[in-house]
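sorry to bug you again but im stuck and you know this stuff better than me. what follows is a protein written twice so to speak, once as letters and once as structure tokens for the fold. mainly i need to know what kind of three dimensional shape the backbone takes. anything you notice is useful, everything is just below:
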Amino acid sequence: MFSHRLTRIALLAVVLLALGALAISCGGSKANVRNEGTPASSPTAVDVTTAQAITRDLPRFFEATGSLAGDQQTDVAPSIAGKVVAVGVDLGSYVKRGQTIVRLDDVDSKLRVEQAQAQVEQSKAALRQAEEKVGLRPGQAFDPNRVPEVANARVALELAEKNLRRSEKLIESGDVSRSFFDQQKAQRDQLKEQYESALSLARQNYAAVMTARANLANAESQLGLARRNLSYALVFSPIDGYVAERNADLGEYVSPSTKVATIVRINPLRIRIDIPEQAIPEVRVGQSVSLTTSAWPDKNFSGHIARISPNVSATSRTLSVEADIENSSGALKPGQFATVRILQSRSQPAVLIPARAVRTEAGVSRVFVIKDGHAQQRLVQLGQSESDLVEVKSGVAAGEQVATSNIDQMSDGMAVRQ
């Protein structure tokens, strides 16, 4: 009986040992499963390309904005009133100086020319008649003694004077009577009156010649005025350029106060900009400028400073400058908004990085400098652009490496792979 009890105790001990071993085995197994299911956390690196910040001498410039304007612009109006019977241009047409823009009805003007021409012919005939009375030939100066009546009266008077002087000598010697002398004297006095009368009449006739000449000059003036008014029926362009506005239509009645078209010359174009007071010593006539517009963002247009205002604005403390911009291609249009750069004579060193390395949000520009496999975020102040590079005024030193790819996936302190 004692041995049977020992046997039962031994079996119970074996079962307990087996259960304990099983529990230990299960616990270790769960621990292994837990360890295998929880991997160790480690930061993810971003692949980037980099570029080195370089130093280069950049040409400096002043930058300003303004609106382009035509080199010349004129509103065309007729010199006389009339009805439009023909229009020779349209909006956007290119016209040469002297080219017809519109033609007005000229029937009345032609009739006035014919009337004036007839008046001239009549005045010429009257002048020829008046000149013949005084014996004038074309281009000859007036001399009353050339008038036949005056010349005949003068000859008779001179003969009477000779006879009278001869009678004076004969009467002293008693060869002629006193009555004969008195007769000779009376004849001389009569001929003298006739001569003076003929001379006065000749001068009156010459005055009629002068009046006829004045009438002819007036008739010729009226003819010239009529012809000029006839020429005004054609309205010409005063300059070479393009038609910016065409206001006249066929059949419309226009007057000298009516604008029929606007002509603008677009090569070169003008632009006026304001220069800060401290930059005045750097600006001079003939200085080169470059211009860009939103319509042609990738194209630069060249020009030069043509005019400089003599005074500085007292309110803004700026100097007004006008530049002429070459526009032979016609790509630029008057009224466009443009940015102008005035190049300075000296260059200055600058730190440059690729423009693609800059991320700008809400007006704040950032770059990521790569050091020891990590990204360092830097706030930067940008300057002028040079091709695909941009100037960094602060935030990055020359020689530092900046990220140029995947910058939208990066943050400060993040690990990177180059």
Remarks:
- Residues 108-231 form one domain.
- The CA atoms of residues 88 and 224 lie 26 Å apart.
